[in-house]
Amino acid sequence: MMASDQPGATERLRDVCDRISAAAALARRHADEIALVAVSKTVDAAAIVPLIAAGQRRFGENRVQEAAAKWPTLKARFPDVELHMVGQLQSNKAAEAVALFDVIHSLDRPSLVAALVKAMAETGRQVPCFIQVNLAEETQKGGCPVDGIADLIRFAQASGITLAGLMTVPPATLEPAPYFALLAKLAADHGLRDIPNGISGGLSMGMSADFETAVMLGATHVRVGSALFGGRT
Ligand SMILES: *Cc1c(COP(=O)(O)O)cnc(C)c1O
C-alpha cells in the first residue's frame, strides 16, 4: 500500500460488510437486502476515493453545502455513485438537494414535501424519499412525530413523491433496539410495504454503533460513518 493511501479504508469496508453479512445471516436475511450507505460527512475527497475504488457505491452526506463542494467532481469521475442526503434539509435548499442527491432520508414535514415537489418538477428528477420519524420526539432533532406520519405519507403520495420507507435516528444515550423495532412496526402499520408510489418498504436505521442490531430488526439501509472513515473531529 502506498503511503498516501488512507490507511485501512478498504479493510474497514470489508469489516463492516462482513459484520452486516453476519447479522443478516443470524436474522435469516440475505445480505444483499441491506444497502450500506457510507456517511462521508467531514471526510475529504481523497479519503473517499479509496472506498469507491474498493467497490463502495452508496455515500451519504448531511449538509447540502458540503456535498455540493465535494461530490460533483467525484460523480463526474465515478458516475455510478449514488448519493444519499441523511441530514436535516431546509426547504430553501430543496432545489440544490434534488439536483445533487439520488435519495433523501430526511423528509419530515409538509412544507418540505411542497419544496421538493416543486424542485423535482423543475429538474425532471424523481428523487425517492424516506420519511424521517422522530420516535422519542427529541426537540433538537429533525423528524416527523409519530402522530404525524399518516398525514405526511398521504400528503407526500398525493403530491407525487416516491416514498422509499421510514428513517430514524434513535436517542443517542438509550438502547436503540426498541426504536428500531418500533420503526419497523410503524412501516408495517402504515402500509409502507405495499404503496402505490413506493419503490420498497425501506427502513433506514442503524449507524456505526448499532448497525448490526438494526440489520437484525429489518434495516434495509444502514448509514455508517465513523466505522468506515475513523472518528470525526
Ligand atoms: C453522521 C450520521 C450517520 C453516521 O454516523 P456514525 O456514527 O459515524 O456511523 C448516520 N446517520 C446520520 C443521520 C448522520 O448524521
Put simply, the count of helices is 9
Please trace the helix and strand order, writing H or E for each element.
HEHEHEHEHEHEHEHEH
The shape, in one word, is globular
- Show unreliable segments: none
Radius of gyration: 17 Å
**What is the average per-residue confidence, as pLDDT, rounded to a whole number?**
93
Q: What structural category do the secondary elements indicate?
A: alpha/beta
Helical content band: 40-55%
The portion of residues forming beta strands comes to 15-25%
| Biggest β-sheet description | 8 strands, parallel
* Gap from first CA to last CA: 25 Å
Summary?
This protein has 233 residues and is of the alpha/beta class.
Keywords:
globular; alpha/beta; 8-stranded parallel beta sheet; binds pyridoxal-5'-phosphate; 233 residues; single chain; 9 helices
What does this 3D model show about the protein?
The radius of gyration is 17 Å and the shape is globular. β5 (129-133), α6 and β6 (163-168) form a beta-alpha-beta unit. It contains nine helices and eight strands. The chain has helices at 9-26, 45-53, 64-77, 94-100, 110-123, 149-158, 177-189, 211-216, 226-229, and strands at residues 35-39, 58-61, 82-85, 103-107, 129-133, 163-168, 202-204, 221-224. The structure holds pyridoxal-5'-phosphate. The site of pyridoxal-5'-phosphate has 14 residues, from β8 and α9.
